[in-house]
Amino acid sequence: MTSAHGFGIDIGGTGMKAAIVDLSDGSLVSHRHRIATPQPATPAAMADVVRELVDGHCWSGPLGVAFPSIVHHGVVGLAANIDRSWMGVDADALFTQACGLEVTMVNDADAAGIAEMRFGAGRGRDGVVIMLTFGTGIGSGLFFDGVLVPNSELGHLELDGHDAETRASAVVREREGIGWDQWAPRVERYLRHVEMLFSPDLLIVGGGASKAAHDWLRLISIETEIVPAVMANNAGIVGAALVGAGLGLHAAS
Ligand code: BGC
């Protein structure tokens, strides 16, 4: 394995995905291995899967892991959509010990944003860029001049007395069985709030709903330029690999 390769794992509520990544262009240089997230998704059970993913790729260098919660210096906080037993766990230390390799944790939306800023929709873009992922929850990655401000957690902005992700995430749309036309106004209301608070120069929308972006982005009317993510399924893996290799903070070196 050359030093231009990294290894990333993207952990979600239903699947844990991993691949070896070419760090010069963000392409995957191995197959993408997916293992169902163990239920219950306890730290010990997930550590076993992380080790299995690493072993399955015969990876022996540093790696990054994208995780769907606040990750402050490796420690998990705000377990909104993950097993509550994760709260306060030093995931960095747990996974490092589980695979005997240096592991660096990163929030999942931060990881996706890092990948999009370096290789995707945010490439070469300065100013305030916000990546928003619409999936089980709403994740956010906040960048200024290509530098990440970690753990922004804009999915938990309070709107009309509700946590925004409980009204406007992609999963809420599926659960309520509403069409894009009914979901889009909620997203627009949310995006207008984000716009008012941050005056962004660019919004990038990713996550599960980005696959259908052409269905709903045309229903959204805001002032800020808004574009779909281009690395959809792989952004978390690629961003995690960049972070694992120490390339996560700046969008371009
Ligand atoms: C979590 C975030 C995460 C987002 C997307 C939210 O509920 O608080 O940390 O990035 O879901 O997974």
What does this protein look like?
This protein is α/β, with parallel strands linked by helices and 253 residues long. It folds into two domains: 5-110 and 234-244, ATPase, nucleotide binding domain (Nucleotidyltransferase, domain 5, 2-Layer Sandwich), CATH 3.30.420; 124-230, ATPase, nucleotide binding domain (Nucleotidyltransferase, domain 5, 2-Layer Sandwich), CATH 3.30.420.40. 31% of the residues lie in helices and 25% in strands. It contains eight helices and 14 strands. The strands form four sheets. Strands 3-2-1-4-7 form a five-stranded mixed sheet. It has a five-stranded mixed sheet with strand order 10-9-8-13-14, covered by helices on one side. A hairpin with a 2-residue loop joins strand 5 (70-72) and strand 6 (75-77). Helix 1 crosses helix 2 (91-99). Bound molecules: beta-D-glucopyranose (BGC). Residues 68-70, 78, 80-81, 107-109, 133, 135-137, 139, 153, 155, 165 line the site of beta-D-glucopyranose (BGC).
Summarize the structure.
The chain is an alpha/beta fold. It is built from eight helices and 14 strands.
Describe the SSE topology.
Elements: E1 5-11, E2 15-22, E3 33-36, H1 43-56, E4 63-67, E5 70-72, E6 75-77, H2 91-99, E7 103-107, H3 108-119, E8 128-134, E9 138-144, E10 147-149, E11 158-159, E12 162-163, H4 165-168, H5 170-176, H6 180-198, E13 202-206, H7 213-216, E14 226-228, H8 235-244
Parallel strand pairs: 1-4, 4-7, 8-13, 13-14
Antiparallel strand pairs: 1-2, 2-3, 5-6, 8-9, 9-10, 11-12
Helix pairs in contact: 1-2, 3-8
This protein binds beta-D-glucopyranose.
The site of beta-D-glucopyranose has 17 residues, from helix 3.
